Amino acid sequence: MISALRALGPSVASTPLPEAVRAGVGAVAGLIIAGLFVLSPAVDSQLGLYLIAPFGASSVLLFAVPNSPLAQPWAAIVGNTVAALIGVAVCLHVADPALRIAVAVGLAITATILCRALHPPAGAVAMTAAMSPDAIADLGYRFAVTPVAAGTVLLVVVAAVYARLTGRRYPMRQVDDRNAHRTADPDPAARIGLSEDQLTDLLERYRQNFNLGAGDLARLVGAAELQAAAQRVGPVTAGTIMSRDLVTVGPDAPAERVAALFRRHRFTSIPVAGPDGRYLGMIFQIHMIATDVRPAGPAAALMRADMPTARADTPLGDLLTLMAEGDVDAVPVLSGPSLVGVVTRTDLISAFARHDPRGPEG
């Protein structure tokens, strides 16, 4: 009985409050922009530009779960448009209301799956058309263009802009996209030795292809492999392997001094700290080299302040993930706001070499 009751509970992991607020604010922005600039809360029989309830359902996917295959631009725009065409056709040819609604939704589901454009709100789009014979009599097949296609395109554009502004990715990055280094290799966390076809076959075998994309599956498997690798070396933490005798610069240090330190110590990164030892950011040599002009200005203008940080008790597995996903080769270790150490990729490699239980022959 207890197991049965537990099965009725939430199946989704808890979400941090900032992420929930981010999704809600995005939906508000998307629908306000749609309502103010293109659409209207009232039906306009001349232009057909008005808000429909399925746009609210599309907003849930576009702003709350933008990585879902069901939320991608093709699924949203093509799915809603195809469903609208079917809904209009059924509404014009089937008289019985109950039969009209059921047939419209059923055909919409089948058609969007065949078009590889399954988008749950599309069922509501078809149902809206089937339930609105008067509006469909005025608009006809224009309903599929305005408001459905026009409104969906607008929401997709707003979702893409909003995702970029809030540090998310939309549309979803596919397996064959170039990585941060602009090469064809997958990101480190997704290098698992399986091709896109093999990943897609796994998703289809377990009937998960509507829930995950091949790229998401690669990143999940890669993250699991990193975690498993960390567990093999035991309870190693950042405090165990970090460099403590640090060379730092203040925020006002000129670029020439930073460059001189890179040449002298052959570092790949240098932390920036205040006079009281408070961590401010990190300067990476690769970023200075990559600039089109000679680096100038103080260290505060050269540093990255938005990179991941760790504590002395951060496990090795978390450090691996931070470096793989954060596109950095060093992670600062903090005690409160103060910098106490740095863990580099070299430190991680040395830790694995020392703690691998299989030994040098493994």
TrEMBL record:
Family annotation (InterPro entries): CBS_dom (IPR000644), CBS_dom_sf (IPR046342), HPP (IPR007065), TM_HPP (IPR058581)
Sequence intervals crossing the membrane: 20-40, 47-65, 71-92, 99-119, 139-163
SMART domains referenced in this protein's UniProt entry, alphabetically: CBS (SM00116)
Gene3D superfamilies given in the database record: CBS-domain
Pfam families registered for this protein in UniProt: CBS, TM_HPP
Residue ranges of every copy of the CBS domain listed in the record: 242-299, 303-361
SUPFAM superfamilies noted in UniProt: CBS-domain pair (SSF54631)
Keyword line: CBS domain, Membrane, Transmembrane, Transmembrane helix
Highest taxon of source: Bacteria
This protein's name: CBS domain-containing protein
